[in-house]
Amino acid sequence: MAEPIQLFVPTFRIEETLEQIRECLEKGWTGLGYKTLDLEQAWRDYTDLPHAYFLDSATSGLHLAVRLLKESDGWQDGDEVITTPLTFVSTNHAILYEGLTPVFADVDEYLCLSPQSVLERITPRTRAVMFVGMGGSAGRLEEVAQICRQKGLRLILDAAHMTGTRLHGKHVGAEADVSVFSFQAVKNMPTADSGMICFRDPKLDEEVRKWAWLGINKDTYSRTLGQGAYKWMYDVEHLGFKYHGNSIMAAMGLVSIKYVDQDNAYRRQLASWYDNLFAGDDLIATIPQPPDCESSRHLYQVMVDNRDEVVLALNAQQIYPGVHYMSNARYRMYAGNHDCPRATKASDMLISLPMHMRLSYSDVGRIADALRKATSMSQ
Ligand SMILES: *Cc1c(COP(=O)(O)O)cnc(C)c1O
Predict the structure, then answer these.
(1) Which domains are present in the chain?
(2) Sign for the pseudo-dihedral over CA of 139, 47, 297, 195
(3) Helix residue ranges per DSSP H, 226-349
(4) Ligand 1 atom, smallest distance to 132 CA
(5) SS3 for 156?
(6) Cα(345)–Cα(352) distance, integer angstroms
């Protein structure tokens, strides 16, 4: 029997990671500060983004992004955020957490928000657009950013898949008012669970440090460094959350970030093997990549008819693909939102094929063969 092939398997540089974690344990510092500061600096160096704050997850980051923009711009409950139905629910939950209304716009051929559809959804209550870089693709991010500038809307980038994605040779993120990255275990820069929030505005970067630690205005590390009898004192400015990252996760991230470009290059190699094997196959539709975008290739997606049967046929061959995503309009929480025909169709047809560092050329061949057999049988 052939070996099972999973959708995602994270690769950790184990000895190097343990060495980083050991430093935290020896120092007796596993929390906020220390390695979290090192990772923020490494992230700014890596992306060239001006600000970065390390969090316990991208879900927390998306919530904080919406919260801080709402606070700073004085948005009212019920104000609207244009977003995609084709995403992980974190994206849209972040809008609901803050009492705002998610308004679904449709996707384009890149499976990212369509600028035309965004324009059609703008109303006097629209305050922001939430853009998801599907699988690492930047889609038409720049056009959406242009619309936001013209219409006075904020742009939030859910960059959970986009570590290492470069547009015109520059790391993505600066296009938006705030970008949120995920370092969850199966994302392309794995820790166990963590994320990074990058605001454009230095004032919001300063604010988010308080909001992520219960609204407390001085972190433990700087208090320890501080002098004098009152170093235990702090003020509480906001009803904040406990969303900050810790030094163990940052220790893992400090190793992952060193290898992410190398790993992404291998992901692009896997993607081009898949592309070549599916070229000319009428039953397997590959997803185009936007011009001058070097994607992280967090995902390799195709669209097929009879998707559910095809997934079962692959499972019978010990191949375990995924689906990114079911249209959020299908979930009870989001029912009754706008009809988005392209997203709905994609939601019925998409398959994410295995994409990780342990796959070889022959694994890709085996997956492609099994997929071709399954699609031609279901005709
Ligand atoms: C994984 C993911 C998130 C959430 O990331 P966490 O770090 O797990 O909270 C948000 N949006 C998208 C598109 C994701 O894939």
Answers:
(1) 14-257 (3.40.640.10), 260-377 (3.90.1150.10)
(2) negative
(3) 247-278, 307-316, 341-349
(4) 13
(5) strand
(6) 15
CA 288 to ligand 1 center in whole angstroms: 23
Cα–Cα distance list, 38 to 26, 48, 256 (Å): 17, 15, 13
Ligand 1 atom having least distance to the Cα of 182: 7
Residue 90 CB less than 6 A away from ligand 1: yes
Distance 283 CA to ligand 1 centre (A): 30
Collect all residues with Cβ–Cβ distance below 8 Å to 138 and sequence separation of at least 6.
Answer: 112, 162, 165, 167, 172, 290, 293, 295
* Cα of 377 from ligand 1 centre, angstroms: 35
What dihedral angle (degrees, nearest 10) is formed by the CA atoms of 9, 13, 19, 22? Answer: 0
- Residue 5 is given by DSSP the state B
Residue 41 amino acid letter: Q
184 lines ligand 1 (CB under 6 A): yes
pLDDT digits (tens, 9 = 90+) for 92-123: 999 999 999 999 999 999 999 999 999 999 99
Instruction: Say how many Å lie between the first and final Cα of the chain, rounded.
Output: 27
CA distances, 255 to each of 36, 51, 191, 226, 268 (Å): 13, 20, 9, 29, 21
Six-digit token string for 25 = 């344990």
Is the CB of residue 91 below 6 angstroms from any atom belonging to ligand 1?
A: yes
| Rounded Cα distance, 231 and 224, in Å | 7
User: DSSP letters along 174-221, please?
Assistant: TTSSEEEEE--TTSSS--SS-EEEEESSHHHHHHHHHHTBTTBSS-HH
pLDDT tens digit sequence for 361-378: 999 999 999 999 999 986
Enter the pTM of the model: 0.97
Confidence (pLDDT) at 232? 73
- With a 6 Å cutoff on the Cβ, whether 295 touches ligand 1 is no
Going by C-beta distance under 8 Å and a sequence separation of 6 or more, which residues neighbour residue 368?
A: 274, 277, 278
Query: Looking at residue 242, what DSSP letter applies?
Result: B
